[in-house]
Structures are given as structure tokens and as C-alpha cells.
Specification:
The protein is α/β, with parallel strands linked by helices. It folds into 2 domains: 187 residues, Hexapeptide repeat proteins (UDP N-Acetylglucosamine Acyltransferase, domain 1), CATH 2.160.10; 49 residues. The protein contains 6 helices and 15 strands. β14 and β15 form a beta hairpin. α3 packs antiparallel against α4. The longest helix has 31 residues.
Length: 243
């Protein structure tokens, strides 16, 4: 059973990382695989009430791989921690099957409660480098979390989240997404900065056209003034009415 699960983990890495050239390379050179395998031991010790041993194995795994996984965390099959340095998975975190985490991802808690305080990730979730998912929230199946996003609320299935705090920018047609998307970046992901600049440019063009129109009105009305106060007042009233 353990060897079948290990083989599944290796196959998942080969599928999702084009840099992986052989099974032996994955076994020897991928800290994400080492961290997951050591977590199996730490979690088994924790579940058998050998808490200190579980924490010790977890601590050694962090020193060897740079990946910190609490021994009580629940991890599904075929988790791929790519590169992995700085990844933190908290005590009450739950991770589904076929999840991908890149370096610097944090599944953290934001309270001191002893109950559920860390995130739950569904199946086929991808978290880009530096993403922070905080609190007892749920990231549903097929969601994409962009690099450096800070997620504080539940994420619907198939959504793509970016920004600080994270906001939804893409809703997939299929809620159960199985397509792989490196670093959680959708190929059709809109650029929110570009959209904001486009909107400002449109507003500026509208204001420029309005200014030109007003200048033309003022010039035309000035030509009708011969200098008398009565005519000047009449022109002013006409201008105000046209505005």
C-alpha cells in the first residue's frame, strides 16, 4: 500500500513538472516528495498519540526540506510541493487530492482557538508562489490561487483569485477543473491594472472632448458680446443654461 502511494506521488510529479526526467531523479532530488513521505510517518505517530515523536519527525523534515507540515495536518493523494522552500501547512489544514503548492505558500491560522483554524483545500487546487491562505476557510475544487495572493474568504469551485486581499477574477465554466495551470495563472487571466488604466484613459478622453466643447461654446458666446453689462449677463445666462 505504501509503495503504491509512493509510486502515485512520483507519477504526479513527473506529470506536473517538465523538469523531472526520471523516477530516480524525483526520488533523490525532490524535497516536496521527501516532505510528504516524512509527513506520513509524522502523521502516523501523531494519530497513535506519539505526539512528541510526530513533532520531532516534522521538525527534522523541515530542516531537511525547508517545508513545514504539522504532523496533524490531513493531506490527500498526489500532493506536489514544487520547489517547496518556505511552505507552511498548519495543524488543522486539510488538503484534497492532486493539489499543487509552490514555494512560499502558507496555509495559516489567524486565531488562537484550539479548534479548526486552518484552511481546507479541495481537489485539483493550485496555489502559486507566495500565496497565503489564512483562517478556517474553504478553497473549493479546481480553484487557482495566484502568486502572492492573500486569501481570507471562501473560494468557489473553479475560481481564480489574485491580489491582496484576494479577489475573484475568473470563474471557470467547469467547476471541477482538472487542467494543470502552473503557479495558478490562467492563460486568459485579465490584468486588473491594465483594465483600470483603460478605464481612466476612457474617462480622460471623455473629459477632453467635453472641455473642447465648452471652449467652443465660450468662444462663440464671447463673439456676441459688445461690452454692455446687459448683454454680458444675457450671455452668462445662456452659457449656464447650455451647461
Amino acid at each position: 500500500m505504501i509503495f503504491k502511494r509512493l509510486a502515485d506521488e512520483i507519477d504526479a510529479i513527473l506529470t506536473r513538472d517538465p523538469a523531472a526526467r526520471s523516477r530516480m531523479e524525483v526520488v533523490l532530488c525532490y524535497p516536496g516528495l521527501h516532505a510528504v513521505a516524512l509527513h506520513w510517518l509524522a502523521n502516523a505517530a501523531w494519530r497513535n498519540n506519539w505526539k512528541l515523536l510526530g513533532r520531532l519527525i516534522s521538525h527534522l523534515a523541515r530542516g531537511l526540506t525547508g517545508i513545514e507540515i504539522h504532523p496533524a495536518a490531513k493531506i490527500g493523494r498526489r500532493l506536489f510541493v514544487d520547489h517547496g522552500m518556505g511552505v507552511v501547512i498548519g495543524e488543522t489544514s486539510e488538503i484534497g487530492d492532486d493539489v499543487t503548492l509552490y514555494q512560499g505558500v502558507v496555509l495559516g491560522g489567524i486565531s488562537l482557538d484550539e479548534g479548526k483554524r486552518h484552511p481546507t483545500l479541495g481537489n485539483n487546487v493550485i496555489c502559486g508562489a507566495g500565496a497565503k491562505i489564512l483562517g478556517p476557510i474553504t478553497v473549493a475544487d479546481g480553484a487557482r490561487i495566484g502568486s502572492n495572493a492573500v486569501v481570507l474568504k471562501d473560494v468557489p469551485a473553479g475560481a481564480t483569485m489574485v491580489g491582496v486581499p484576494a479577489r475573484q477574477v475568473v470563474r471557470a465554466a467547469k467547476q471541477d477543473r482538472s487542467d494543470f495551470c502552473a503557479y495558478g495563472q490562467d492563460p486568459d487571466l485579465p490584468d486588473p491594472v491594465a483594465r483600470a488604466i483603460d478605464a481612466m484613459c476612457g474617462d480622460i478622453a471623455t473629459l477632453r472632448a467635453r472641455i473642447v466643447e465648452l471652449e467652443g461654446m465660450v468662444t462663440a458666446l464671447r463673439g456676441q458680446v459688445d461690452g454692455t453689462p446687459q448683454q454680458t449677463d444675457a450671455v452668462s445666462r445662456t452659457l449656464l443654461e447650455r451647461l
